[in-house]
Amino acid sequence: MTLETAARVQVCALSDLEVERGRAALFGTVQIALFLLADGSVRAVSNLDPYSGAHVMSRGIVGSRGDVPTLASPMHKQVFDLRTGVCIDTQGRDAAALRVWTVTVVDGNVELDAEEIR
After folding, report:
1. Three-state SS string across 38-98, please?
2. What is the per-residue burial (b if ≥16 Cβ within 10 Å, else e) of 60-94?
3. pLDDT tens by residue, 57-107
4. Residue 103 bridge partners (DSSP)
5. CA 87, CA 49: separation in Å to the nearest integer?
6. Residue 99 phi/psi, 5° resolution?
7. How many CA atoms lie within 13 A of 40 on its CB side?
8. How far is the C-alpha of 94 from the C-alpha of 109, rounded, in Å?
9. Where does residue 31 rank: exposed (0-12), middle (13-18), buried (19+ CB within 10 A)?
10. Residue 42: which of 115, 110, 107, 97 has the closest Cα?
């Protein structure tokens, strides 16, 4: 269920997310991958893998490089910084990045800025 209030869109309840397991959300034609990290923070990035062109990032492997939370593509294992979307291990391919959305958790609900989704 998606509720829109002011400039925020309620995506799901925080309890709908599992630690280090991705979930996909669809807003019109925009697919977003959501991740609840072990530290309790929630990250949102594009579900579209820029290298393969497939909407699979919600099935990626969550990890870290030092204190940087990361996401490895399930397709070709490129590694992205979940904070910035920048690919930090291109596996020899050209630089690319995932789109990143700002996540807010309000009263146990995960919300995104409605203007950022468009």
Report:
1. CCCCEEEEECECCCCCCECHHHCEEEEECCEEEEECCCCCCEEECCCCEEEECCCCCCCEC
2. bebeeeeeebbbbbbeeebbbbbeebebeeeeeee
3. 999 999 999 999 999 999 999 999 999 999 999 999 999 999 999 999 999
4. 112
5. 11
6. -70, 145
7. 2
8. 37
9. middle
10. 110
Other residues' Cβ atoms within 10 Å of the Cβ of residue 3: 10
Which of 76, 71, 45, 46 is closest to 60 using CA atoms? Answer: 71
Nearest residue to 117 (alpha-carbon basis) of 107, 103, 106, 96:
103
pTM, full prediction: 0.90
State the Cα–Cα distance between residues 59 and 49, nearest whole angstrom: 11
